[in-house]
Amino acid sequence: MKKGGTYQYVLAAIGAAIISILAQVTIPLPLVPITGQTLAIGLVVTILGMRLGVLSVIVYILIGAVGMPVFSGFSGGLGIVVGPTGGYIIGFLPSAILMGLYLRKFSVTISHAIVANLIGMVVTLLFGTVWLKIIADLTWTAAFMGGVAPFILVGVIKAVLAAWFGVVVRRRLKTAHLVEATV
Amino acid sequence: MLEKMIFGRYIPGDSFIHRLDARAKLLFVFFFIMVVFIANNWITYGILLVFTFLIIKLSKIRLYFLINGLKPVVFLIIFTFLLHLFFTREGPIILDWKFIKIYEEGLKQGIFISIRFTVLVILTSILTLTTTPISITDALEILLNPLKKWKLPVHELALMMSISLRFIPTLMDETDKIMKAQMARGSDMTTGNMKERMNAIVPLLIPLFVSAFKRAEDLATAMEVRGYRGGEGRTRYRKLEWALRDTLTLLTLVVLAVILVYFRN
Predict the structure, then answer these.
(1) Which GO molecular function, any one, fits this protein according to its record (chain B) (predicted)?
(2) In a domain, A33, yes or no
């Protein structure tokens, strides 16, 4: 089923809306509850693939920047994007691109999706930390302690979950002929 | 959940700042972010604070909304303050208690960075509090128009933003419905071991994505049969108007930058 440009754009827009909603969902787990933002990005990129996934992420960042409270914890506005944690949000973009490229090169299986999501996590953390270091004038050690260390364990769990959900949902959508076999 | 999201962060009003052109406000904030980095001592950070205070007064926004906007970052501001306090090791020691050593430079840097963040967050919040997301989207589209030369799909991005903004409430409603529907069928996300809980989430995600694909198809068809063919030659329903006050507002930023450069170390 080949569909035109308008359909692709609308789908990416709705993908961004889905990220916005899932970013607010918390999965109640014992010990660490899992919040949705990075999970939602990984999930949508895994399902929609390179082109549409990346477009969705761009639109998500932009609607957050213009003031819709779509970032985690109902925050939003340019203040969040330029604030101390803005690097993570900007980092979603390169992270989505790399995830998309990886999934396009290899097939969308659970193990490949996990690798892709882990790459995505590393890139997001990297951008977040570099930004935190620059905007807050921190030393690298301090930025690492504040920007990476607390998120590694939860990040890995999220990456695995996003990959698993993404592949399961994608498989079903493929049987319904809603997504194409290639990303 | 819906109430928190449906209106965005826009607070209607009729202040000087509300009446400014969205493009002017966007440019103002963009350049202000750079100007903030000029400040590097007590006087310049003081000037920034006064400037920000004047803008708050001009926008006539109740302090409550601004504090609300600061909430998500307050923790981070305190956190970076503490990081500076403990990790910057320059200047004379001002506190030496057991293993904690606090240096003068650390305290000073901590305060400066906190001011920088507060000022940035307040100014950018004022932009989104006084401008509707739709006018910011329009303004972005116009300002980014020159980038079309480099194949950036500016019109399409703005279109996608508008569609996305419009669909968030709809999809949120839908998510709610799907959750209730699955609960009525006996699905349970709050008990069981990790695997059971994760499995209970899949039946929520699949209908959500299926309905998203269906809606995208319907909307795209509706747009195309009404003759939508991209941004080429398209006219606008909402018009932005640039006035003298917009130019003057941008000029105050130049004045601020000059003053800051004069007083910085």
Answers:
(1) transmembrane transporter activity
(2) yes
ipTM score of complex: 0.85
**How many beta-carbon pairs below 8 A join chains A and B?**
210
Residue A180 belongs to a domain: no
Number of domains in chain A: 1
Q: Which residue of B has its CA nearest to A16?
A: B164
Q: In this predicted model, what pLDDT tens digit does every residue of B4-59 receive, in sequence order?
A: 554 456 788 888 899 999 999 999 988 998 898 888 889 999 999 999 999 999 98
Q: What pLDDT score was predicted for residue B6?
A: 46
Cα–Cα distance measured from residue A95 to residue A7, given in angstroms and rounded to the nearest whole number: 25
CATH code: domain of residue A167 = 1.10.1760.20
Q: What are the Cα distances from residue A141, in Å, to B87, B210, B220, B239?
A: 9, 45, 50, 50
* Global pTM value: 0.80
Is residue A183 one of the residues assigned to a domain?
no
| Best A7, A10, A35, A54 residue to mutate vs chain B (most B CBs within 10 Å) | A10
Residue A104 phi/psi, 5-degree rounding, is: -70, -40
Instruction: Give how far Cα B73 sits from Cα of A111, B118, B151, B185, Å.
Output: 36, 9, 36, 40
Question: Is there a domain that residue A181 lies in?
Answer: no
Sequence letter at residue B248: L
Q: Which structural domain, as residue segments, surrounds residue A83?
A: 5-175
